[in-house]
Amino acid sequence: MNRMLKAKGAVAGVLLLAGLWAGAAVPSPDTVIRTTADEVIAAIKSDKAIQNGDRSKAYALINQKVLPHFDFNRMTRLAVGRSWRQASPEQQKQLIDGFRDLLVRTYASSLSQYKDQVVQIKGTDSQPGDSDAVVHTVIVPSGGQSVPIDYSMEKNNDEWKVYDIKVDGVSLVTNYRSEFADVVRRDGVDGLIKALDEKRKLAEKK
Length: 206
Hints:
This protein is α+β, with helices and mostly antiparallel strands. It has a single domain, classed as Nuclear Transport Factor 2, Chain: A (Roll). Helices cover 51% and strands 18% of the residues. The chain is built from seven helices and five strands. It has a five-stranded antiparallel sheet. A hairpin with a 2-residue loop joins strand 4 and strand 5. Helix 6 crosses helix 7. The two termini are 15 Å apart.
């Protein structure tokens, strides 16, 4: 995960851009991300508690701006890979919940790392009528190296949702897939569920 999280300041941009604005019309994917990035950054700048590392406030912001607009079902299914079919419906639900909670707690601390980074929207490779898109962005930390972040998004029921994030070319889903496969091979699906819970608890302590 070091490559995925190599720049703490840049990681904040992952969540700053991840929430999607849900309006009456269906904006283009890059417009959605640009609009919500401004809203989330404004929320962080106005909330000293988040800036000082208040996890409860960070969780609340993530729950409001991010979670409703992520396809955690698809993300988890892609991250678990072939082992997904081995899981019962109840185990699949536990995997989705565990993966979601892990990501929320892993990135919550990054909100307090926001230090006036510049978010640049580089556009998308989708065409009108497409249901799948990749939105290209760059996070420019103050005094640091720029980090490209790409969002894989799918339009479902007139709503764009993120199902993967690439940080500096490294896919979050792919990065977890090999790790999850090793756990399932060694300890089974229940072992992966337990491992996700342990990772979540560890993330809460950081």
